[in-house]
Amino acid sequence: MEVVPSAQQMRAMWCREMEWLLYVSDSMVELMPSIQQFPRGGTYEVMATRSWLDLHINLPYPLGMSSGRPSIRQEEKWWLPNPKVPPKGLSVDARKRLQQRRDCTN
């Protein structure tokens, strides 16, 4: 018998992990030039901080929270990436590059 956390527990764990991730990422900012106007009428160009836009875009959505995704990968090495191949297969050049990378790693 396998003990699996409920969907509510999974969501709570995911939210907590995302809060930890975002807490660290709050200090990851990029400097963007902006115009600042002062009360006496002067305008200055200053560097303002802005959080990375791609940081929020690339956050993973928890598995099992969306209807289109499988709940959990039931594999021994679940952390390895799941390759996605186009329906027509790989091109000849892509196969050669992949084979060369495989040969170089062995």
From TrEMBL:
Highest taxon of source: Eukaryota
Protein name, as recorded: PRONE domain-containing protein
Gene Ontology MF: a single term: guanyl-nucleotide exchange factor activity
Biased composition (Basic and acidic residues): 93-106
Segments for region (Disordered): 84-106
InterPro entries registered for this protein in UniProt: PRONE_dom, RopGEF
Domain PRONE: 1-106
Keyword Acyltransferase applies: no
Keyword Transit peptide: no
Signal peptide per UniProt: none
Keyword terms of this UniProt record: Guanine-nucleotide releasing factor
